[in-house]
UniProtKB/TrEMBL annotation:
<keyword id="KW-0067">ATP-binding</keyword>
<dbReference type="InterPro" id="IPR002173">
    <property type="entry name" value="Carboh/pur_kinase_PfkB_CS"/>
</dbReference>
<comment type="similarity">
    <text>Belongs to the carbohydrate kinase PfkB family.</text>
</comment>
<dbReference type="Pfam" id="PF00294">
    <property type="entry name" value="PfkB"/>
</dbReference>
<dbReference type="GO" id="GO:0005524">
    <property type="term" value="F:ATP binding"/>
</dbReference>
<dbReference type="GO" id="GO:0016301">
    <property type="term" value="F:kinase activity"/>
</dbReference>
<keyword id="KW-0418">Kinase</keyword>
<keyword id="KW-0808">Transferase</keyword>
<dbReference type="InterPro" id="IPR029056">
    <property type="entry name" value="Ribokinase-like"/>
</dbReference>
<dbReference type="InterPro" id="IPR050306">
    <property type="entry name" value="PfkB_Carbo_kinase"/>
</dbReference>
<protein>
    <submittedName>
        <fullName>Sugar kinase, ribokinase family</fullName>
    </submittedName>
</protein>
<keyword id="KW-0547">Nucleotide-binding</keyword>
<dbReference type="InterPro" id="IPR011611">
    <property type="entry name" value="PfkB_dom"/>
</dbReference>
<feature type="domain" description="Carbohydrate kinase PfkB">
    <location>
        <begin position="20"/>
        <end position="282"/>
    </location>
</feature>
Length: 287
């Protein structure tokens, strides 16, 4: 998909709060937007933060990174988002605070004239009515090429609602356990992916598998797989999926073939897990 069109990322900006007391910038859409900015794709990131210290930090960090903040709303009534993260069996467990600013992304404050072309969103951002309605209105635009990043975080999802977003998508990315949770669960991964892919009439279905790598089913029904070629010391896995997604989107926009996109996305995810947190503030990290 060679594209010079605009790129929009819609969703949560928040802080990942670790048991050590460390607070790290996060939120899957924020992480994806941050990476894509460093990769030269200059996304318009739509979100909402509180008029508080953490919100000011997000705005300041985005500005320092060269990202536009014109689509970041500020909320005087709701706090900037946060999620408490603990690690169990080398996997992150998330506990999201309720009624964060990003739950209230307001359609009337969005520069809708700047939205066209490639549009990314997750499923978590639609957990509350206001942000859900905003996303609903934005994605009614039939000219958008929609990439849905499935994020099933209990208790903040319902299968019927997730299915609705999948029906609008050209590309869907999720992990293997999420594929099963959405009802595509047999003894054969290829069969499960085929059922999901054809059910939602997708261009590509992308399934990440942790240390096993990732697999993509394309429009011709062909499967493409990649596995990590090596693994450095893992510091934390919180940002692996977001890093993979960002590089995959970068490949779609650049017109790479699936094999090249998969390999580079997997390699980038492997790099990100060698550091604490989901993003890097070092521009050299992206070279």
């Amino acid at each position: 998909m060679k594209s010079s069109s605009k790129l929009t990322i819609f969703g949560e900006a928040l802080f990942d709060c670790f048991p050590t007391g460390e607070n790290v910038l996060g939120g899957a859409p924020f992480n994806v937007a941050w990476h894509l900015q460093a990769l030269g794709d200059y996304p318009l990131f739509i979100s909402r933060v509180g008029k508080d210290e953490l919100g000011d930090i997000i705005l300041s960090e985005m500005t320092s990174w060269g990202m536009t903040t014109k689509a970041i709303q500020q909320d005087s009534e709701h706090q900037t988002g946060r999620v408490d993260i603990r690690i169990e069996n080398d996997e992150p467990i998330y506990t999201f605070a309720e009624d964060n600013a990003w739950d209230f992304i307001d359609l009337s404050e969005i520069p809708t004239q700047d939205i066209s072309g490639f549009f990314y969103h997750g499923t978590l951002v639609a957990r509350r009515d206001i942000a859900n309605r905003t996303l609903e209105k934005l994605t009614e635009n039939p000219s958008l090429d929609i990439f849905v990043d499935v994020n099933l975080r209990s208790p903040w999802w319902q299968k019927e609602a997730v299915y609705h977003w999948l029906e609008q998508a050209r590309w869907v990315k999720l992990n293997e356990s999420e594929l099963y949770e959405l009802g595509f669960h047999s003894a054969d991964l290829h069969q499960d992916m085929t059922r999901m892919h054809t059910h939602f009439h997708l261009d590509q279905l992308i399934v990440t598998r942790g240390e096993k790598g990732a697999i993509v089913r394309d429009t011709d029904g062909v499967f493409h797989q990649v596995a990590p070629s090596y693994q450095e010391q893992v510091v934390d896995t919180v940002g692996a999926g977001d890093a993979f997604t960002a590089m995959y989107i970068h490949g779609l926009l650049a017109g790479w073939d699936i094999e090249e996109t998969l390999e580079k996305a997997q390699a980038f995810a492997c790099r990100v897990v060698t550091q604490r947190g989901a993003i890097s503030k070092d521009p050299d990290f992206y070279k």
